[in-house]
Amino acid sequence: MTVDLLPRVLLLVGGFGALYFGAEWLVYGSANLARRLGVPPIVIGLSIVSLGTSAPELAVSLTAVLQGQSDIALGNVLGSNLANVGLVLGISAFVRPLVVGARVIQREVPIMAVITVLLFPIALDGVISRGDGVILVALLVAYLGFVFRASEEEPPEVVGTFTEFIDEGSPASVPVTTAKALGLVLLGVGTLVLGGFTIVQAATYVARVLGVPDLIIGLTVIAVGTSLPELATSIVAAVRNEADIAVGNVIGSNVFNLGAVLGITAMANPVPVSADVLRVELPSVLLISLLVIPFARTQSTIGRLEGAVLVLTYAGLAFWITSAIR
After folding, report:
1. Which band of pLDDT confidence, cut at 50, 70 and 90, is reported for residue 297?
2. Please, where are the H alpha helices in 125-177?
3. Where are the domains positioned within the chain?
4. Which of 99, 131, 244, 322 is deepest in the core (most CB within 10 A)?
5. Spatial CB neighbours of 312, under 8 Å, sequence gap ≥ 6
6. Between vectors from CA 76 to CA 235 and to CA 241, what angle results, nearest 5°?
7. Structurally, what CATH architecture does the domain formed by 5-324 represent?
């Protein structure tokens, strides 16, 4: 590693740290505000927590596309979805088999796959336009409406799991004043912006020095780094035997990545889509998304064997993508 490269790598690591803490503060503040507004814990667990863990992806992708690094933006979103299912869900299931009790989550898995499929016709013309971004955001709004309605049909034991999580194991478990909650939201957003800017600058430099395409950097290093909040949340939930939290966080985050992150990014600036994305990366994300459907339907359990399959599938797809992208 050259002397010039080392400081940029340290900046990259520091940027990931900023994204992690920024996401924590954002979830802490927004979850507390939601509770004060009377939002049910199950809705907070299925939406606000997922939105918070997707905030790093939004910060990085939005910063990247505004700086003309569209490959980093797109690679980050698709790579994060790949990592969320393959690594986060796979490792969580390996830590403790995940028994999915929430009907809403069992329905969310096909929704995630359907939105992924819809990216093909949207991206087929070589660009995700502002109009396409509006469509993606509209799909997210429809998804949130579904979560609100479906959460009311859940049995008491499922609702109790989310209530326990929000009351004892989440950022909202320690109530704060409205002013402090707003301050935490602003602090979280500011830290995320700083982290996103730092990561894009450092990653672009590292990619140029090493001769690695921006798409690969976005797919691997940045995508895995921005998935750290999802990994932390899901592993803690798995250890505490809160499978619905672990799985709901991953599925919800993937939907937010496609609807909010990619949608808002495209609305800010159209995102060019390379042939490599259509040929290699999108099919890979769709494949691993479809793989979760039978796992979640098999006695509603994602066991250690399924977890190992997901991790190995992620490793194989990541190797294929990095080898196939020109």
Report:
1. low
2. 130-151, 156-164
3. 5-324
4. 244
5. none
6. 10
7. Up-down Bundle (1.20)
